[in-house]
């Protein structure tokens, strides 16, 4: 049972023992026998949670709610935690201490020294080991509850078959990757059928410095991750002409070394920011460039920040956002109190401020909507121009899009033969390839989404020969 | 990069080395080893606070283990302060942990110990794991108030929590505003004016014309405007509109394609900004005027404000320049030369400001025979930071009260289920009941407790607390531990604006609010 915020109740799966009234303990404060089992630790965990399962004045389903069902749901639910980093460590601890017994955790990363200022399940001696495994091990060793199962998976979420995701009651994400969030969001939306079976709530948290957000997504019912893609802050990018010709900031010099010089000097070798020799080279090259132009401020730390696109992070903000997310998971599973509908923003850099609101579903959302998005293209754009604009579009953000229409393949990235066959289209004018408002299907190998786009043409037929056109980096 | 720089990289990007060194020389005290308290300490130990001390004379119970991560089965029945200290200590070997197995009641009663014991802390956090009487809390408030040490009162019951910061005074120089930009378009100094005048837009070829920094464009446009408008900047909406269209955009050869003119146009509003002193800075300056030397000499913040007063008197009432120039479309030499003009001016202002400080210190040392220790040397980094941030300084005075009249009035008017204020009063009422009857209230006591306030939401909120009365619900304890962690970090790094002064969280509706008492 899950509240949709409109009084609709769905997803019996969340509360499997929904109709079994076996142990009635609402009226009594004493702990029923199920909580005083031979498993000492199990009892321990419940003492701080037990009172929360009683029916309170804000309960949305007073006629249907039972504490026993809530306790059973908590014990029988299966929670998937995606990410065992700053948020993930907090989430695992929170779930384990609020009565959840069956947890799986997925993370593809290994522990880095810069994680230790906030990822409290890791020690210096763990550097290099898989995060998911070390985190699960630490929680088990600290809590020592034989009824608590934490299964780690060191790998990508994309490695698991769709069937795998169906077993979970709730999925909770503590990720720093937009791509992974889009993938799990689209996957969970895709699992829901017309009778709303397999509706698995997704709780998502994110932080940056003193700020963060927590949200609840009920796939197909409420606004999904893709619906709010345009709320993401855009990554700082610099025009190529600035980087190449008129650098002014230390960042411009670092970008020059990173984007233009590295490929020239080390053709074929991928830059690895975690390799000290690579970073040294990058720093020296940036510094040399800065000196040439009299620009001050290139440091090793700034170099690292720019090339890795580092986002500041502290334990305190992670604690706030993870606790909000886990409180929502607790409410979703037990139904003891209303769940967040559906977005809470948090900001702590100027006093403390939270803003809770209902983000609305987008009709033309490429994941949960059903209408095509309309996008504008200049009549003179080549297919290549159009593709690079698509990748930058806030609501689309596909890195390697392939495009087809109902009648033809415009451009395909793979397989190789089709890539070769369609490559020629890239230099053709888009307005010659398709009709105005014709539907284009856009896909990207990294996302389980196909996006429908209609193109509205405007502007001159021929590319204008102007300064701004020369200066833009289309 | 050193291993410390690597370990703390993600936080140094927020508060830099200055904040880190303040953090590393700080000592925080936690009274009552609750779950929210251990979570708060975790958030301070990980980033490397200097040291922490846990004050608690109780033994570890089932409930402590069931809800807290920094205790386990092995600790059951043992003294909680050392047990929790040892688990927290593991988080960071750079941090020193201490435990004091004494009750806070005894510590505040023992007058002899007060001065030394409490003055070692930068922040004291009091949580409600064990009941602390109103009398003890009151005594602690007085002691810390006199020592000017912030006291953070934290409580959480069920889905609710609050943090109340009781601090005599909080002053912040590095508030981290979004922009530190101060372009002084309305009042360019001679070097800037002569640079602008040396550029003749008409003589430039198209490429150079499209690379003139917008600061130069706006100063030129403003010069023309002022010469035609009694030396006044555009003021009314109509004037600003006219300035943008006829004085800024009109200078462009092709508004569609000259990005620098587009930037000038979208920044045209800056030309109407005056470089006069912001109102809140005027207020701070008024405060220092009535301060005796002993007061302003005992605080770097107020010493700097006193110096700022002198600086303004000698510099036509203009604040020191921040020297921060935003990026703007320009070729490299054009940008660097104008950036140097801003930086040089900022450096000169810092020097003049330093002279003001030195003259205050010299006068005070020779003329008075003060009981305060006068700083003999102020680091140049502090001066730079102050001058850079002087338009955004922050100071506030706190209160020892638990609530104020306005809050009482709004309580009576609460009408929505998600009103947050009733939560705070309901938690205070819970506490008062315990003070009076020496045990927690139950649902049976609802009518009696609710009777004092005639408001249905208040009653409903009280009921929620009495039913979901868990004091150690981990999620809310951890949420409050995060809030306390953040606020303590702000207080000890002396950066960012801290909570002023009451924050209440409603985990039922996932909302929060704050009040100034």
UniProtKB/TrEMBL annotation, chain A:
Cellular compartment(s): Cytoplasm
Alphabetical list of InterPro entries matching this protein: E2-binding, ThiF/MoeB/HesA, ThiF_NAD_FAD-bd, Ub_act_enz_dom_a_sf, Uba3_N, Ubiquitin-activating_enz, UBQ-activ_enz_E1_Cys_AS
Chief localization: cytoplasm
Keyword Ligase applies: yes
Active site: 241 (glycyl thioester intermediate)
Pfam families: E2_bind (PF08825), ThiF (PF00899)
Name of the featured protein: NEDD8-activating enzyme E1 catalytic subunit
Naturally occurring in which organism (per UniProt): [Candida] railenensis
Automatic annotation (TrEMBL), chain B:
Cell location: Cytoplasm
Gene Ontology molecular function: NEDD8 activating enzyme activity
Superkingdom to which the source organism belongs: Eukaryota
GO cellular component: cytoplasm
Protein family membership: Belongs to the ubiquitin-activating E1 family. ULA1 subfamily.
Protein name in UniProt: NEDD8-activating enzyme E1 regulatory subunit
Keyword Cytoplasm annotated: yes
UniProt pathway annotation: Protein modification; protein neddylation
Role summary: Regulatory subunit of the dimeric UBA3-ULA1 E1 enzyme.
Organism listed in the record: [Candida] railenensis
An annotated GO BP: protein neddylation
Keyword ATP-binding found: no
Entry keyword set: Cytoplasm, Ubl conjugation pathway
Chain ranges of the THIF-type NAD/FAD binding fold domain: 8-510
